[in-house]
Amino acid sequence: MMVAEKHGASCHMALPLDSSEHPLFPPLPSYDPPTPARKMQYYARRTISFFLSLGFLTLIFLGALVCTAGTVISDAISRLKGKKTPKRPFHAEERARRLARTKSDKQWHRKQQKKHVDEEQGPEECPPLEGGKDPIVCDVAYYARRVGLDVETFRVQTEDGFIITLWHVYNPQEYTALSAAQRCERGPSVFGQPKKLESARGNSNRRYPVLLIHGLLQSSGTYCTNDDDSLAFYLCKSGYDVWLGNNRCGLHPEHTSLSTSDPQMWSWDIRHLGTLDLAALTSRVLYETGFEKLGLVCHSQGTTQTFVALAKEHRPELGERLSVFCALAPAAYAGPLVSKSYFRFMSIMSPDLFRLFFGIHSFIPFMMTVRRVIHPKIYGTLAYWVFSFLFGWSDARWERDLRDRMFQFAPVYVSAESMRWWLGSESFAKHGCILSTIDEIEKDGHHPGKTGTEHGDDPADACLGGPKDHSWFGPQLPPFALWIGGSDALVDGRRLLDRFKSGREPHVHLVHSKIIEEYEHLDVLWAMDAVEQVAKEVRQILWTTMPEEARNVCRIPRGINQTLHETEE
Description:
There is one protein chain. By secondary structure, this protein is α/β, with parallel strands linked by helices. It is about 40% helix and about 10% strand. Strands 1-2-4-3-5-6-7-8 form an eight-stranded mixed β-sheet, with helices on both faces. A hairpin with a 5-residue loop joins strand 1 and strand 2. The two termini are about 35 Å apart.
């Protein structure tokens, strides 16, 4: 199944997965090493796709602009008619936070001038290391320092040669950052011997490691934009050892032997993110912390790559390294949004036409250029309009003053082939599911309680020992926990929950599930009540599913209900 590329052995990128025909994962194109003639050909294709994809993006932007203008005009007409426009759900809380942030900014400036802590404020457990008015930057370490934490960056090498980044969130009063040499890549092998920990770290005050993985077109900076309410900072201050994993290419594409102009570097899809990137990130966190398992928290596409990796035919042994898998807005089944005209347009394209429009390299790299050159406030507004138009969510439950931050970490570089898997004619957009074909979904019949021939299984299967097994997972799974947005139009978390509860996945141990009816796709991260609705429960689930030997050497996170754990045991 897996073929690890020998480090430095060749400039060819070995396919790490079985490239044979697969109804859910069509074969990826293979490219020979670039010759001068091929380089000219690739340059010509990039030029053509630049203009075609820019035209597509322009149409999307115009659609978003018209939609936004329509909403603004409609609200203005309502006000002129004397109708009251509904207030935002957290109007009062939003205003209170704005005033508190203004006060905090003034206190920061006063402290900088006086060089001491205000007596009226008193000592702080995690005093801010940065402050004042937020310049809005694409830097997780900066936002960590604003809440008294910090971030160090590790370089991680995947088995097929990509260099990906891993951010470690830490409390500078408890931990000293490692040197750059200690944080560099360690080679392509994974799950080797863990690092020998210093004796001082072997006491009962260690932090249990938690790895967070981001969604499509994002980096893990999305977990760090809401000050103390950010999931990464919240878990760190609760007492966990927090690591933020980023998939290949991301903010800065890098490979051990391939250049960004080489289409070999961009020939990958969701399976590579799960079986290679997630495995490499998990391995590095376990190596650095010395634990045998970690807690995994993922959002959207991060859940997809995990489900794919844990599937029986991919890398199920990864499940033995996880104490729990917390899935936020789990993306396994498509929501109604996939039927929108612009997505249908992409889904009817043949593979060759898709590659003509969107290239064989990065997917619409112009978006990343815009993010770099436009003022962050202007970019934040434009990005919100476009992504809201595309994905059907709003900022109604977010703290609007922080919205521009949220879009400094999106979009990022992804391959056109990975987007073709999501939106093209052969994969997710066609089947509406990550691990079942249309035929298998129809056999399920949307009747969770039915079994055998009632699901439409071939009667001949009974002669071979019963109905065909269409389960996705084997026995090596960690416990699962799901948080589902009830108003999420992008993915259908209810269908996944129904599948797990129906017994179709006998090896899934569902320790927690919650449908938050009013939540849209990104509200599980950015809603103003996400700490109450999601983060506190994630904090508890991580503790109750932790291996007993780890619990014996780890501090008890703040706010943990130990009685609940004892009751479950």
